[in-house]
UniProtKB/TrEMBL annotation:
<feature type="domain" description="Alanine racemase N-terminal">
    <location>
        <begin position="3"/>
        <end position="214"/>
    </location>
</feature>
<dbReference type="InterPro" id="IPR001608">
    <property type="entry name" value="Ala_racemase_N"/>
</dbReference>
<protein>
    <recommendedName>
        <fullName>Pyridoxal phosphate homeostasis protein</fullName>
    </recommendedName>
</protein>
<dbReference type="InterPro" id="IPR011078">
    <property type="entry name" value="PyrdxlP_homeostasis"/>
</dbReference>
<feature type="modified residue" description="N6-(pyridoxal phosphate)lysine">
    <location>
        <position position="31"/>
    </location>
</feature>
<dbReference type="InterPro" id="IPR029066">
    <property type="entry name" value="PLP-binding_barrel"/>
</dbReference>
<dbReference type="GO" id="GO:0030170">
    <property type="term" value="F:pyridoxal phosphate binding"/>
</dbReference>
<comment type="function">
    <text>Pyridoxal 5'-phosphate (PLP)-binding protein, which is involved in PLP homeostasis.</text>
</comment>
<keyword id="KW-0663">Pyridoxal phosphate</keyword>
<comment type="similarity">
    <text>Belongs to the pyridoxal phosphate-binding protein YggS/PROSC family.</text>
</comment>
<dbReference type="Pfam" id="PF01168">
    <property type="entry name" value="Ala_racemase_N"/>
</dbReference>
Length: 215
């Protein structure tokens, strides 16, 4: 299992960057992984997981949460507005707040359900037309609109363009978070989590390096 290896590499990256041990949260991304691989990681004591699809997560986590208490579940995939209700019910954090219609739904559900997941705003750092996320320029207005709705996002998230050096994207996200006083940075995946940690990531989203390739 790759969990121990990844935990060691995170600890080493924290130390190299002069960051406190344990300052980076490892989100084990379990989407579409065979059940046995995920339960092995639960058995090993890990409790923080990421999922991309509301329906898939609804199908497995309520039961697993009963069997392994203390699970913290992060939504890291695109979230349709009509799934906001289920998402607020199921997830402890949502990393993909990327538009006002979704912000309104989440605010409504937080009111109705009396619980609000931690929110990360997804930023389209590469300005890619096909990719979700708000543009860096839009962040100040988007944030203040969130505040008007009673939402308090605590961080930013990005997925750098494929095939490009992720560093400038990590740096941009870090600067934006700093400028707006947001403490959390969700960045870095299997291929680049160590450089993300060097650039200040507080949450890394690692799937295949822990569980193996997805089918
Ligand atoms: C699937 C996914 C990951 C994990 O990717 P790996 O390369 O398997 O580590 C991280 N973040 C997001 C947004 C994902 O969709």
């Amino acid at each position: 299992m790759g969990l121990d290896d990844i935990k060691r590499r995170i600890a080493a990256a924290e130390e190299r960057a002069g960051r406190a041990p344990g300052s980076v949260t490892l989100i084990a991304v379990s989407k579409v992984q065979p059940e046995g691989r995920v339960t092995a990681v639960l058995d090993a004591g890990h409790r923080v997981f990421g999922e991309n699809y509301v329906q898939e997560a609804q199908g497995k986590w309520p039961d697993w949460r009963n069997r392994w208490p203390g699970v913290e579940l992060h939504m890291i995939g695109p979230l349709q507005s009509n799934k906001a209700k289920a998402a607020v019910d199921l997830f402890d954090a949502i990393h993909t707040l990327d538009r006002m219609t979704l912000a309104r739904k989440l605010a409504q559900q937080a009111d109705q359900q009396g619980r609000s997941p931690h929110l990360f705003i997804q930023v389209n750092t590469g300005d890619e037309p096909q990719k979700a996320g708000i543009l860096a320029d839009e962040l100040p207005v988007f944030l203040s609109s969130c505040h008007d709705l009673g939402l308090s996002p605590s961080g930013l998230m990005c997925i750098p363009p494929e095939g490009h050096d992720p560093l400038p994207h990590f740096r941009l996200l870090r600067r934006l978070a700093h400028d707006h006083g947001l403490p959390h940075l969700s960045m870095g995946m299997s291929a680049d989590f160590e450089s993300a940690i060097a650039e200040g990531a507080t949450h890394v989203r690692v799937g295949s390096a822990i569980f193996g390739d997805r089918a």
